[in-house]
Amino acid sequence: MSVKVIQVGLGGWGTNWAHTILPQVKAVDVVGFVDASPEVLKRAQETLGLSEAKCFPSLDTAIAAVEAEGVLAVLPTAGHKSVSEMALKAGKHVLVEKPFTSTLEEAQALIALAKQADRVLMVSQNYRYQAAVRTVADLVRKRTYGRALSALIDFRQNWKVTGHRYHDIPGPLLLDMAIHHFDLMRMIFGENVQRVACRSWNTPDSPFKDHAAAHALLALESGMMVSYNGSWVSRGTPTTWTGEWAIECEEAELLWQARGVGGAIADKVVLRRPDGTTEDLPMTPVELIDRAGTLNAFAQAVRGKPPRYFTSGEDNIQSLATSFASMRSGAQDGTWVQLSDILP
């Protein structure tokens, strides 16, 4: 039986969810759509073929009008807290887009509320639902090639090429983009970040108000070090959205990437041995990839069977804290920031 949900947010990203993702996931049935803008609602009705009876100006109106078990919050980050809070208080399960919330205090409040209401609170970290990602996470956690010793992550994109226009948002790299990479890092290595030292900057021609490039050194709880280089203003060869990863293990190195630009399948996992020989490794198939995988996982969790690598709010606050710690370190000229200092 499908999980009935209400989608909140019908802007560009919300429309993309409704048009591209929802039809793929048979486990979910969207019974209502919410947007505060009458113009946006009307445009959605025209472009998506939605009936007026399914469209509402507010979440409380929708909750009163239709029977739903969950809420899909795909509006701008500033609205995540209020929408998720209203949904949880109404007894609904919640799937909210990343970044989880605007502050760690908001995230902690929602986690506590979800526990009190005994409802699922999930954050959409869609990069987890890629074949290469799942394959590497399983190999590393099983220690197939020995312990992981260190890792390098490179992310290079140019906003002019990708069409990224979020020039005014805080943390366009470290909060809006690198949170994907930090979240994958936690998933793959199965541990949280203990402290981070980060330098961030803008190039002279950058249109971003906040820093769009950064280099971070992240120390995991085991003491393992991960080096992260990221840029929204790169003139170099672009990477895929997951970035290019090199994970050194005791017996060999894992090189991998996933999620091509435009949603193209670009998954690849290469094993490089100490003698320099390489081998393309077979990958674990993923039935529903990317956001469709996230939405399907949400439905499974609502039905009481959260899948492996599930991104609950309680888990995802560690990824959010890693982004905020990196931003704080960058603002402090690269000094080490302990996550325990910003996430009691």
Blueprint of the fold:
Elements: E1 3-8, H1 12-21, E2 28-34, H2 38-48, E3 55-56, H3 59-65, E4 70-73, H4 80-89, E5 93-97, H5 104-117, E6 121-124, H6 131-141, E7 148-156, H7 159-162, H8 178-189, E8 193-201, E9 213-220, E10 225-231, E11 244-249, E12 253-257, E13 268-272, E14 278-280, H9 290-302, H10 313-331, E15 337-338, H11 339-342
Parallel strand pairs: 1-2, 1-4, 2-3, 4-5, 5-6, 7-10
Antiparallel strand pairs: 7-11, 8-9, 8-15, 9-10, 11-12, 12-13, 13-14
Helix pairs in contact: 4-5, 5-10, 6-8, 8-10
Short description:
The chain is an alpha/beta fold.
Protein described:
This protein is an alpha/beta fold and 344 residues long. Helices cover 33% and strands 24% of the residues. It is built from eleven helices and 15 strands. A nine-stranded mixed sheet has the order 14-13-12-11-7-10-9-8-15. It holds the Pfam family GFO_IDH_MocA_C3. This is Dehydrogenase. It comes from Inquilinus ginsengisoli.
